[in-house]
Each structure stands twice: as C-alpha cells, then as structure tokens.
Amino acid sequence: MGQLAGETLRLLRIESLELLPLGSSEIGDAWDLIRKYHIYQADALQLVQCLHSKADRLVSADKALLGIAQQEGLHSIDIEDPEETARLGY
C-alpha cells in the first residue's frame, strides 16, 4: 500500500481525519474563492469544506490561507505560532 493511502487509513482509524464528500456546490464555491482571492484550487477546497462542514477552526502554517479563512469568518490557527498552539494544548 502506498504511503499516502497507509497514512490516510491510519488517521481515519484514530479518528484524526474526516473525509468529506465533494459535490458541485463545493466546487462552485471553491471557484468563487479562487476568483476572489487568486488562491490555489486545493486551498480553496480546504476552505470551502471547512465552511460547509461548520468546522470550528482551520489549522495551518500558510499565513495567506489563514488570513483568507479569517476574512471568510472561519477561526484560524497558525500551527507555527507557539502562543496559538499552546492554547490548543500542543
């Protein structure tokens, strides 16, 4: 089994990963974000899935992505910021 598939299965087993369906609504909303912010497709899909699933936060090291998440009303946490990660208990 490939490394990505193995890691995905491991994270699913320990309930640290949730796979979400990707439909035409999500794709359309992602395109809206791509046009609005000129971001990568993968970043737009991450944001859309967080927003659609009503995630309580986005954790990332990508400062540009975190800024866009905040503009879209999503609480974001910079995983490289010691103060923010301390509040998470990491």
Looking at this protein, list some descriptive labels.
single chain, about 90 residues, mainly alpha, globular
Note down, in words, how this protein is organized:
The chain is mostly helical and 90 residues long. It has one domain. Helices cover 59% and strands 7% of the residues. The protein has a two-stranded parallel ribbon with strand order 1-2. Helix 4 links the parallel strand 1 (58-60) and strand 2 (76-78). The radius of gyration is 14 Å and the shape is globular. The mean pLDDT is 92.
Mean model confidence by pLDDT: 92
Number of helices: 5
Number of domains: 1
C-alpha Rg (nearest Å): 14 Å
The topology string of helices and strands comes to HHHEHEH
DSSP E strands, number? 2
Shape designation: globular
Strand content: 5-15%
Overall helicity: 55-70%
Oligomer: single chain
Which stretches are low in confidence, meaning pLDDT under 50 for 5 or more residues running? Answer: none
Biggest sheet statistics = 2 strands, parallel
Gap between N and C termini: 30 Å
Question: By helix and strand content, what is the structural category?
Answer: mainly alpha
Widest beta sheet: strand line-up: 1-2
